[in-house]
Amino acid sequence: MDSIDDSKPVVPHGFNIDTIMRYASRAAYSPLASYLIVNALSRRLKTATAKDKLSAAAALWAAANVVVPGVGKLAGRLFYGGKKAVQWQSEIVVVTGGSNGVGLELVKRLLKAGARVAILDVHAFPIDDARYNDQWKYYSCDITNLEQVKEVAGQIRADLGDATMLVNNAGIVVGKLLLDMSDREVDKVVDVNLTSQFHLIRQFLPAMLKAKRGHIVSIGSIVSFVGTPQASTYCATKGAVRILHESLRREVASRYEANSIQFTIAFPGVINTGLFGGLDLGSFLFPTLRPDSIARKVFAALGSGKGEEIFLPTMANLLPIINTLPLGVQSTICDVLGGNNNAMSSFSGHTKY
Ligand SMILES: NC(=O)c1ccc[n+]([C@@H]2O[C@H](COP(=O)([O-])OP(=O)(O)OC[C@H]3O[C@@H](n4cnc5c(N)ncnc54)[C@H](O)[C@@H]3O)[C@@H](O)[C@H]2O)c1
């Protein structure tokens, strides 16, 4: 297995808003840098009292940046014994679409951590590393086929045991106008991206409810919030996945009173896996991500034992807010500033299914 390099920033370097915010927040939370910057600014003030006040505020902020993380670490040690919430050796993780892209990057991290992993994919799992051979099993499975899913779920239970984590990751896109798509293409996009999630959840959730532990992950997209021309079927499935995730999270907590079962959903922008080949949202506001960008965030959420909503890159955090604005404003932001109407014109990703 390739060595895993998690030292790179989650959102790639370059002149983009994420890089600027990364350096700005590093400066703001560094006791020394924040003190020096604010003190330098205070010199521009006119009155001595104002200078003193700002200087005192800078010292207070710097002190807080030393004390607060220290107290946080101490509390973590005291309450959690410094250990991770999840013991990977006792986790059995089902990952759909684990043979490529985001799924593959996630599987690598799960194996390295010690989890046992079931990979469901229509393409063979590409990793051959003797160190991990006992930890994973590949199941050739078209997740749109309910009979196959049922059969494979039974095999996983027999081979590895009851799944404790399920990652609904596999997804496809057909980048065509709705009227240019064949009936089969429409069905296939809906079946892979959405219907399969119902099948898989219905197979693996019951054992999680019984054990009163588990974690279910869905990979949505920024288009879970913003519809895009030439990808209406894909966007519709990603919007539906968001609501499925939300309904299920509430259903499990309120009707089964199983708050211990966690739910994580990711809303990524474009990732350079080839799925959306040719697409460029403009590198400043929506820098293109790597598959490990999302995999690392999902892995961290699983490891923390706490469900999360992952928005990447940073501007994706604004999408739920944009949806609440008047239609005209939404259009201006998405179409004029974000180039949403023509984003798919250059699409050259996977199209044949
Ligand atoms: N690539 C992007 O720009 C992007 C952006 C936002 C969200 N996403 C989402 O992230 C997830 C992962 O995407 P990716 O870019 O890693 O894609 P990818 O094409 O690199 O990998 C997807 C995997 O799913 C598998 N798969 C496809 N159909 C299947 C089926 N019927 N049964 C079983 N496996 C099947 C493929 O064989 C492949 O291994 C998807 O849900 C996708 O919609 C991707």
From TrEMBL:
Q: Which UniProt keywords apply?
A: Lipid metabolism, Membrane, NADP, Oxidoreductase, Transmembrane, Transmembrane helix
Keyword Disulfide bond found = no
Principal place where this protein is found?
A: membrane
Localization terms from the record: Membrane
Tagged with keyword Oxidoreductase: yes
| Pfam families on file | adh_short (PF00106)
Q: What is this entry's stated membrane topology?
A: Multi-pass membrane protein
Quote one Gene Ontology molecular function term.
all-trans-retinol dehydrogenase (NADP+) activity
Q: Which GO terms describe its cellular component?
A: membrane
Give the InterPro entries listed for this entry: NAD(P)-bd_dom_sf, Sc_DH/Rdtase_CS, SDR_fam
What is this protein for, i.e. what is its function? Catalyzes the reduction of all-trans-retinal to all-trans-retinol in the presence of NADPH.
| Record PANTHER family | PKSB (PTHR24322), RETINOL DEHYDROGENASE 10 (PTHR24322:SF736)
The family line of this record is:
Belongs to the short-chain dehydrogenases/reductases (SDR) family.
Kindly provide the name given to this protein in its UniProt entry.
Answer: Short-chain dehydrogenase/reductase 3
Write down the species. Answer: Coemansia thaxteri
